[in-house]
Write a structure and sequence with these properties.
The protein is an all-alpha fold. The protein folds into 2 domains: 1-64, no CATH class; 67-100. It has 4 helices and no strands. The chain has helices spanning 23-34, 49-59, 77-94, 96-99. It is globular. The protein starts with 22 loop residues before the first helix and ends with a helix. The relative contact order is 0.11.
C-alpha cells in the first residue's frame, strides 16, 4: 500500500515557497529591524516562531547580517556567552565584507 502524500511540512523552515500566511507579521518585524527597533517574539511551543524568524532572515536586505542563536543548550551564563560569541563570530566570518 502506498503512503499518502502529505503536502504540509511538519519540521523546519525550507523557503518562502512553503511558508504560509504571516506576511503581515514578516513585514512588521522587517520594518522594526530595519528601523533599529528591538522586538520580542514569544509564544507557546510549535506555533511557528522559529519559521517566522527564518522567513524574516530570508527576506531581509542582504546588507543586514542576521544571526540565529539558540540559547536552549546553555545551562549557565558562561555557556550562554560562549554560544553567543561563537554564533556572532561565525556570522562575521561568513560575511567577509563586515570584517573588512
Amino acid at each position: 500500500m502506498q503512503q499518502p502524500y502529505n503536502p504540509f511540512l511538519t519540521k523546519g523552515y525550507i523557503s518562502p515557497k512553503y511558508f504560509c500566511d504571516r506576511q503581515k507579521e514578516t513585514k512588521t518585524i522587517m520594518e522594526a529591524l530595519t528601523n533599529g527597533r528591538n522586538i520580542t517574539l514569544y509564544g507557546r511551543r510549535k506555533l511557528g516562531k522559529t519559521a517566522l524568524i527564518k522567513n524574516v532572515f530570508f527576506n531581509m536586505d542582504k546588507n543586514h547580517i542576521c544571526i540565529w542563536i539558540d540559547l536552549l543548550p546553555s545551562q549557565n551564563f558562561a555557556e550562554m556567552v560562549n554560544i553567543m560569541t561563537n554564533n556572532i563570530y561565525s556570522a562575521i566570518d561568513n560575511n567577509k565584507s563586515l570584517s573588512k
